[in-house]
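Review this:
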Amino acid sequence: MSDPGTATTKGRPEAGHILISAAMLLIPLIAFASLAIDTGAWYVEHQRNQRAADAAALAGVVWMPDLPAAQSVALDAVRRNGYPGAVLTSSLAAFESAAPGDPPLVYVEATGQQSISVRLRTNGLVLFGTVFGVQQVSTRSLADALYVRPEVMGNPTSALGNGVDGPVPDHFWLNILPTTQVRNAGDLISSQQGRGGIPNPNHDPRGYLYVVDVPAGGTWNLQVRPTCYRQNRGRATYSLYFPDSTSYDAYDNVNAGNRAMTDTFGRERNPDNCEIPAPPAAPTSGAIAFAANIGACVDRDVASGWVQIWDCNGAANQTWTIDADGRLSTGGACAQVPAGSLGNGTFVTVGGCGGGDEARWSISGSTITNRASGRCLDLPSGTTTNGQNLQIWDCVGGSNQTWSTSVAPAGPPPAPTPNWSPAADGAQWHTLHNVGTRSGRWTFQAAHGGGSGRVLYSVRIVDAAGNTCTSAANPSCPTIAPLNWQGAFTQSDMFGPGSPASFTDSELWLADVGSEYAGNTLQVLLFDPADGIDAVKIEDPNGAFADFTWDTIDVDEFGYAGGGYYGADAGPYDQRCGGDSVVTSPTAAVACDPTQPERNWFQDRTVRIRIPIPDTPCVTDCWWKLVYVNGTNDSNETTTYRASIIGDPVRLTR
């Protein structure tokens, strides 16, 4: 029985509240989950976007300073890295104001001669954000890239191989040896063969190639000068190729064959300027004595006009001269036989010197022969009585036809001497082409064009007034630099004759190593260097000699078992040069035992020199030099060399 005073109340179920609460909480959970998914997708998209921008910057920068080419290549890289519909915009304002739904935009600008900045903007899709009204998200990436071009050789002026004159005395000429010359003479690429008939694997039939970079505007004439120096005996074929729009290189210009000009010549083109004729040798005058009685001489009887024998007295009528035409004369009259009377016994007379061969004679040893008759000057019966007339007679070699004399005609004129001295070169400059007609990168080619000797020449670019320039003084100065190798020749007498104390060190410009190369390595390859010199040194832009390492690389890198001997009787070079890898100091340099009689330390070998480039940036004058120290020796150096930078040439800077 229940207690009527007690009320029983049934509680409400709580399941509905939990469901509602869970449902309410699910909404923000889903929102946060969708936000996380979208954020992850945006992050992935940004990474993809940045990778595409990086790839575009690295691909495009190698085409600088050709900005249109760099832009085209960069756009192609973006399209190949996930954005096939990307388009290039020409202005930063258009890039920044892109509207939703626009295709991926690419903006490329130059930030320097060898650097670009690439901006990429894409509109990424939103998976769940549309619930909250977010339709798309714009993703932007920025990539800056720098291209440090492989260093090219050259010098601080618009000229190369000035020899002994020019705005900067570099003390060498450009050199080309004949293709038939064995390569151990010092020309790595012109020679077709090595010693023992082994083919030269480094032979380049194109010869030496140079890049000629020309700014827009102005008159700039490319000129060549074969030197008058005595060792320049060959001819060279010079060719010039137009710039093209394919890439910022020069080999393809040659392959395309789009020549602006070609010509073959040597120092013979201007013989009047390059050779000084020697004065002709004077004929020898004197008496003609009878060999059997040297007290009797050939005499002119002025009164009768006969040629007779008479006691030698040194008078003028006994002093005879014979010229190059064989006219034997004394006192302005010539010995002769009457025209038409050329038989034996015809007496010799004197008369005018305008006749034919009857008035011409040949002196050979002790015999004097009339050219018209072919008969010899003869003393009848060998009688030396004063007044005995002389005659012509068949040449029998008897004593009455034997004469003693110092009379001789003038010899052939001596060979002309080169119009050259250590102070000046008489050779003329030859204008090949006005490269100022088109800006860009021209290609200049020089190859041996004939003759048995070497070619020694200089090349320069001058303005309309004939002046060269320097890049330091004129930023618009055109430049010329070797593309493959540079052949060089230097010799001590280029700087003046004299004792070894007068020899001047030879300086060959290597490379302009700016701050962008800091921390890399400058590599110099020298083929067959150091003939007759004391040492090879590398001079830095501050004028100090740099430390470096060196070794020989022919067998390793060129596959050619070259010489490497020290004189005719020597074995491997390292027996006298201190080993195969030597760290040198500024005073040691690449030097071997100077007391040895032979100086060909690296005959037919390639020496590799490596110099660490300081981290301290070079700002203005950044030229490195190769120095041949000629202090105690007469150098005679033919070498082939090139310089390059070891290190990554392309890198992202942002």
Q: What stands out?
A: The CA atoms of residues 322 and 328 lie 4 Å apart.
